[in-house]
TrEMBL record:
Residues 33-158 form the Serine aminopeptidase S33 domain. This is Alpha/beta hydrolase. It comes from the Bacteria. GO terms for molecular function: hydrolase activity. Pfam families: Hydrolase_4. Keywords: Hydrolase. One of its GO terms (cellular component) is membrane.
Length: 291
């Protein structure tokens, strides 16, 4: 699991500050790619569940790499797919299963379309995307205006420094969005979403990068229609980040995919119920009959 499996070159090698983890488990090799504003370690209960059936790796989004600096001028999410390609080429010598959530799912789609030979199957949990009309409008919107539109505006204004980890825990306990987390997911999120910075703690995934990603959400259905790798599509109940309309359109543009849902949980279903999400993934991969 250490030599590249193809003579094709990567778009760019991963830099020395790229962060990733390996989790020993049982079964086939699987990579997990996380959502915007998170790091892979914040999903530890979900990853632990995955290790019941898989050997798991998790590359952090470059926004969560140490000393990453400011976001680039380009707002294309394709760079995260290129990072994933470089990671897989470096660490695997056979196609792997790739699971992605939200931004991680969209990034995995980009990678699979650029290098389908690296992937045995895709599991896409609510890929982050918007309608074509919204993506087009945002594309032509001046950068100076984008910062006044949600979710960019709210992200840039949110608190990102605390006196200590306990203060951060208390802050998270007051946020409605975190109250739906499984207790173990909440603990992992609190522990791994901040880093020490002098006498304070600050966000591991800088809010400037999170807002940067929100400022150019893509129209992904064209990319999805190009997928040639066997795919399991998973959604939670319709929500602000993933609508019923998008779900229906996805089924039309990728009819060969397997579509599964968990209507008891929302967009953050791997964090709300890690074990249930794991079971859906296993079910989907079994139904694909990959062997």
């Amino acid at each position: 699991m250490t030599s590249p499996k193809s003579s094709q070159s990567t778009f760019h090698p991963l830099p020395d500050n790229a962060s990733f983890q390996f989790y020993s488990g049982k079964g086939e090799d699987l990579h997990f790619y996380h959502a915007n504003g998170f790091s892979s370690a914040t999903y530890q209960p979900f990853i632990k569940a995955l290790t019941q059936s898989f050997n798991v790796s998790a590359l952090d989004s470059r926004a969560a790499w140490p000393d990453i600096g400011k976001p680039p001028k380009s707002r294309s999410w394709q760079i995260y797919g290129e990072d994933l390609i470089a990671f897989i080429e470096t660490h695997y010598d056979a196609p792997i299963i790739a699971v992605g959530h939200s931004l991680g799912a969209s990034s995995t789609i980009y990678a699979a379309n650029m290098r389908p030979d690296l992937f045995k199957a895709l599991v896409l949990i609510e890929p982050a995307m918007v309608k074509r009309s919204v993506a087009t409008a945002i594309k032509w919107m001046p950068d100076a205006l984008l910062k006044y539109i949600d979710p960019v505006k709210t992200t840039l204004k949110k608190q990102d420094r605390w006196a200590c980890r306990q203060s951060y825990r208390e802050y998270c306990q007051q946020r409605r969005s975190f109250q739906r987390f499984h207790p173990q997911s909440f603990d992992a999120f609190v522990e791994h979403s901040v880093i020490d910075d002098g006498n304070e703690v600050t966000l591991r995934f800088p809010k400037a990068w999170e807002a940067h990603n929100f400022s150019r959400p893509p129209y992904m259905l064209k990319e999805i229609s190009r997928i040639s790798v066997p795919t399991v599509a998973i959604r939670g109940k319709p929500n602000l980040f993933f609508s019923e309309e998008i779900w229906q359109q996805w089924q039309k543009c990728q009819p060969d995919a397997l579509f599964l849902e968990d209507l008891q949980h929302g967009h953050l279903l791997p964090l709300e119920n890690p074990e249930s999400c794991y079971r859906i993934i296993v079910k989907g991969l079994e139904l694909l009959n990959l062997d």
